[in-house]
Amino acid sequence: MRCVHINRRLAVLMIPVVGLFSWPQAGSAQPRAAAAPAAAPQPQRFADGIAAVINKQVITLQQVDAEVNVARKQLKSQNIQVPDDEVLRRQVLQRMITETLVRQEAERLRIEISDQQLQDAVGSVAQRNNMSKEKLRAEIEKTGVAWSYYLDSLRQEMLTDMVRQRAVDSRIVVSDAEVDAFLNSQGRTGNNLLGGVQRGAAAQQTVPRELGLAQILVQVPEGASTQQIQELRAKADSLLARVRGGADFASVAAASSDGPEALEGGNMGVRPTEGWPDLFLRAVSNVATGDVSDIVQSGNGFHILKVTTRGPEPAQPQAANAGVPQPQQEMFAQEGPMMVTQTRARHILIKIDQVTTEERALTRIRDLRQRIVMGEDFAEVARRSSDDASAPEGGDLGWLTPGETVQPFQQAMDALQPGQISEPVLTQFGWHIIQVEERRTRDMEDEFKRMRARQVLFERQAGPAFEDWLSQIRSQAFIDNRLAPRANNNRFNR
Predict the structure, then answer these.
(1) Distance CA 259, CA 325 (A)
(2) Tens digit of each residue's pLDDT (9 = 90 or more) over 300-316
(3) Among 49, 165, 438, 490, which one is most buried in terms of CB atoms within 10 A?
(4) 210-311 and 339-443: same fold?
(5) What is the pTM of this model?
(6) CATH number for the 9-170 domain, one of 1.10.4030.10, 1.20.272.10, 1.10.287.130, 3.90.1150.10?
(7) Are 288 and 223 in contact (CB under 8 A)?
(8) Rg (Cα) of the chain, in Å, rounded?
(9) CATH architecture of 210-311
(10) Where does the UniProt annotation place the signal sequence (predicted)?
(11) 180-197 burial, b if ≥16 CB within 10 A, otherwise e?
């Protein structure tokens, strides 16, 4: 798969105005005094004011307390019962540890979010909420959240997404055989997951195009003993009994779930049905909206799933499908000829990695562009200098269909006339320059079905793959969580 062809959305760009800061950044809120220790052993452990050590980075109690204040406001604004202080601090610290690990991995991969990228994201959020940047800021500050805190949180969301793209998404390969098998299965079952409109009686049998889920996760650590697994299963059984006995699902999730979305009441969002893992789809196939599933076991632990939404895909793009450009969504929603304008293009990529910084990559791509402008052949420069797999073909990407490349690349390419060369373009893969050779219009019905099938299969793998990756980097890190039992810590042998 060509590197620019991985199509992932920035989830942060479609989150509603309230609740935009679902990934708060450690220490970004105004700190308050650390809470007094509640148990006898704690004065010795907390005398230095340290809540956790992740590799060589420290999270202080003051930072945790600042985040606890924000989390408490969030939960109250969502009408979710706030856990007691001790539980809330532990949940907040777990989230901060995950964020710290992601930032450390981003530093290792030399991934940064520039101020311009951040401002572009703010503009996208404002646009999708039909307001100006100034209005967005005013709405955020009305909720009691400082604008600087919101920007830090948005930057963390973007950083997490770029790390996921670089470390996880690039390793997911969907084969042609898998696409063929998926399309055949759709034909056998009569499901309409690819967006074609079914007419007549068949339309009544179409599965919902949109599914919202929340979860309570009881995580099973890697290498857990049989006894530990049994104890954790018993915990999951107890939580399921509480929920089915009338306890509020979101409040139980906030207090007890090990999932990253615990402090959002376990809400994992709304996606097109095909975007959820098969394991989850099977578990909720007969679960009504508002009800919960039986316990589902995965490689990550024990899940209790609540169906929050079932229904048709919305007419306007929402968070779940923000990664698919609107023209492409409309093409998926019809049958018959799909007349599409394609672009044939070349590109040169200079990757950003542990050796090449973003600044060095930009300087190099600018030099290459200047050489081409002065008369050197684009294809020859690409063969000698591009870091992309397309280099031997002179950077030739073939015929590209709208939505086939990542958004910054697509936007820059669409702005060019045949023969023109773009200014440097930054994506998660590095710095590019693009040359458009020609354009054509053709019927893409069959190609779109295959593209959509490939996207469905990719999305089903991406979520579990990212969770596995997070578990892996957590298991390899030195983590001293002083708010958790010592048995839950991972003191990596350095």
Answers:
(1) 30
(2) 899 999 999 987 644 43
(3) 165
(4) yes
(5) 0.66
(6) 1.10.4030.10
(7) no
(8) 24
(9) Roll (3.10)
(10) 1-28
(11) eebeeebeeeeebbbbbe
